[in-house]
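Hi support team,

I submitted a single chain yesterday and got back a structure, but I'm not sure I'm reading the token output correctly. Could someone confirm the output below corresponds to the sequence I sent? I've pasted both exactly as they appear in my results page.

Thanks,
R.
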Amino acid sequence: MRPSPKAYLLLLGMSLLLGAHAQYRGYFTLQDFATVVHNASGVNGVPGFNTNPQNVLGYPAPGFTPTQPDNSKLFSFGWGGFVEVSFARPIANLPAGVDPHNPEGYDLIVFGNPFYVGGNRCFAWVEPGYVEVGVDRSGSGVPDAQTAWYLLLPSHPDPRDASGIPRFPLDAQWFGNRSVCPPIVGYADVTPITNLGHPLIPDDPFTPDIQGLSAGGDPFKLEWAVDWNTGQPVVLEEAHFVRVVHALNTSHPLFGRSSTEITAIALVRRYGDTNADGCVNDADLLTVLFQFGQTGDALAGDVDRDGVVNDTDLLAVLFQFGSGC
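Hi R., thanks for writing in. Yes, this is the structure output for that exact sequence:
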């Protein structure tokens, strides 16, 4: 059976990038990314890319550029499809105004495979997915009947009906080659990736193009959490699971059914946390002291990511000492 046009494009994205090597900048470890897939469905996903949800674990695929996705590592799911994951640490509600590279306090980043069409940073091929977070009320460590799920309410397009209740699917206009000036905000698989950026630095989702040192992807905050039944905000200090669900139920005359593709999901580190355990403590202080004076692009002790471990990094750990613990 011949592959569909969309499957052919995904396969082409793999073949063009065979032999590509990870170039992401900065220091990060597998502990910063999703570590366990709990549940998933690739229903209505692209055939050949919808059978292995384990592909969302670990780092983003290595060969991404803003105009050329790397489809060697992803999971595809359409309407009715989803993926649920957890991490080595809880998802923390990080404060704004602390980390100079995360001034708005984003908590997690979802990496899909959108791309800028024709190199135009105001048009991207997008297939939005909405994002939920789960709170492990039973303490079981797995999503179960007691898990409370909350939508991280998207800003644009706003999915709420006239009563303020979130409703999906989105209108078909949000599938395919879309203007992203102003950006689509609050959905997965809408912002491209650059492998020249840092995958733990969130992009500014309200500004077109990929900003600063970020590797792109779509950032989310626990502060966006709302109750599905009322649409009202919910205060969360932390959560334990992430679920990404395809937000559309439509087709393209050439490329077939819409489907979200995910390559990785990362947690943003707390400022001063050098070892990805979510707590700024003695271990982080020792890391900075042992690496003091060193220079380089991938040093755990380079808290402010300026390429040198110095007084600024030491002060960052001291000022944040005890946070998250």
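A quick pointer for reading it: The CA atoms of residues 122 and 196 lie 20 Å apart. Let us know if anything else looks off.

Best,
Support desk
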